[in-house]
UniProtKB/TrEMBL annotation:
This is Cofactor assembly of complex C subunit B. It comes from the Eukaryota. Keywords: Membrane, Transmembrane, Transmembrane helix. The chain crosses the membrane at residues 51-73, 79-96. PANTHER family: PROTEIN COFACTOR ASSEMBLY OF COMPLEX C SUBUNIT B CCB1, CHLOROPLASTIC, PTHR35302.
């Protein structure tokens, strides 16, 4: 996604650049290109929790299919439940395919007095949204309304 954030005026471009660099280094990104547009690269690694959840959900799904087959084809009895042993394959597939390289580009438009006017960010929607929340940025043309469960 590409989102444009507006500068708050109270904070200079250098300070915001430092906050952005700090955010990306905390999230295991490194600067790969500097210039008018700064490019951050990071490796997204698989999560053990997601692999376990995927294995569990696949096991429950296969157990449901086995239950339907047990009722539909009663000749084989409860032998259909052996297909639940295939559920760890879903976790293994996720674990081998989930790592990917992410790129986020940031372009800052600075005024004559050194204040930040706009910032154009392009990258993965989850990373951009996490950056917006942590750095408390305001998207251009949008009004932020707090949700019911937010503090």
């Amino acid at each position: 996604v590409q989102k444009t954030f507006i500068g708050e005026g109270k904070e200079g471009a250098n300070r915001m650049a430092g906050r952005i660099l700090s955010f990306f280094t905390r999230n295991n990104f490194a600067v790969s290109d500097r210039g008018e547009t700064i490019t951050f690269e990071g490796m997204m690694v698989p999560s053990r929790g997601q692999a376990a959840l995927l294995t569990f959900c696949t096991c429950i799904s296969l157990a449901s299919v086995a239950l339907v087959f047990t009722i539909t084809f009663p000749d084989l009895g409860n032998n259909w439940f052996w297909i639940t042993l295939l559920s760890p394959l879903a976790g293994v597939y996720y674990w081998t395919k989930a790592s990917r390289k992410e790129q986020v580009t940031v372009k800052m438009l600075v005024g004559d007095d050194g204040s930040l006017l706009e910032m154009v960010v392009r990258g993965d929607d989850q990373q951009v949204e996490q950056m917006r929340k942590e750095l408390q940025l305001t998207e251009k043309g949008m009004v932020y309304v707090k949700g019911i469960f937010e503090r």
